[in-house]
Task: structure prediction
Amino acid sequence: MPGHPIQSRRLMPGLCSGRRSAGLVEGGKFMTEYDVIIVGYGPAGKVLARQLVDGGHKVAVVERWPEAYPLPRAIGYDHEIKRIFYAMGIARDVAAISRGMGHYVWYNADWKVLIDIDETRESISGGATGYTFNQPELEKILHEDLRRRDGISYHLGMEAIAARDTGDHIEVEIARFDAQSLRIDHSETRLLTGRYLVGCDGANSFVRRLMDVPVIDHGFDEAWLVVDVMPNDLEKLHIPDAAQWCNPARPTTIVPSGVRNRRFEFMLLPGEEPTQMCAADEVWELLAPWLSPDDGHLIRSATYRFRSLLTRGWRKGQMLLAGDAAHLMPPFMGQGMCAGLRDAWNLGWKLGLVLDGSVAESLLDSYEAERSPHVEAVIRISMAMGQVICVPDPEAARRRDEAFFAGIMPPPPVFPPLSDGIIARDADGKPMGFAGELLPHDDLVRDSSPVRLDDLAGRNFVLVTNVAVDDARLARLGIRQVLLGGAGWRDINGRLSHWLESHDAAAYLARPDFYAFGSAANSKEIDSLLEAFEGMMRGRDHVLNEVA
Result:
């Protein structure tokens, strides 16, 4: 069932915000043209913009390219990201350009199976665990969705050339970027003003350089050739569906890229020159075991350095980072874009509350506290997978293969919960009541047609419980309630009820990004959980480290 656009939440009624307009001073306070200026209009920038305009906030996007990049880059997303697409109301459109990942199989040089990762297994979000897609098609869906909405100003074909954080507002100077000559025209510039500046501008981020924050290198650095192909008739070709060929002669990745296309990635060997390896004759020689020029056509070939970088300092004053501007990881988990969209989904609801005046600005400090450890863990998992794949020495590869065949295999990757930020914690500051876990999704039914839990919740905090709680108190806190059982809702697949039962819980409090603020075993603990929530959200200066 497709999702529906969800109206923005309004947490903590009684605290209101004022609308700003460019360059005015009202009551001694500078009034900005925009609430948020986003530099970079890739998937993370688009998803962040959508969240903010849904909340009634004015957004400017600045992007040097006049149109979305037409060639594929990211090709994978997981069930959590699919849930974001549902919450945005675009899941049906995205599904049309996607396909399930199937089985992700690692082979040795002789095509013997080392490990088979089943991406079709049922996820806690419902449906398969992983999906592949074609990024240009996704970018088009996201852009067309935004074009139907008010509150966003597009500055495409423009480059951010300077910015200044005044302490009260942000000033960003932009100039025309010539996509043909790759030059900036400084003859005519414009100044944008906003409350916040968010850099979603990729690995070479202007905003990150402006913030002058350190970048930690975790040490993975390999050069690979990435090739995208559109086969004429995929059914006639003997191409593995989703594979890592752990061949020491040349480690190779073969995966789907959406419904029709195929992605091949070849590790470059010492002495191979990247530009030369992108030449069509070199590419077709590498592709020869699977297809020839008569079997399809090349969409693109490009070389990349697969890196493992993590920025320290995602917020500096009124400036923040998201996506590749904040982190880079090897592609072997298919989590690069996913991590950026998690950033945007996390930051979006927090910026919305701050802009509403519902919470203190210090809430934004929880953004890096939550996302950075999670991203770092995924980077390390991706590196570990890459270190298994990228073994060019035949003897080392033989020892690796023997270990796999003997059953000495790395455990399946498990994404970590949130460990800090806006989660319930005990007196020692440790997460309590399963706080920080990614929570399940289900379809619910009562008297009418099924409805998605996320549609009932909106982008609000939501209490899922089998014990009725005073609605007036929840309304005061801006929390929605989903009561299970009896006169309440029935979860069709039993995921919510199972979670409560398996965690010995009577309720859990879910955040707008599907993670648990905390859980409670009985009515008394529900009261304590809500008190902790109110204390943290109203705590202003101690929003990050105290629970009432």
User: Anything to note?
Assistant: The two ends are 40 Å apart (CA to CA).
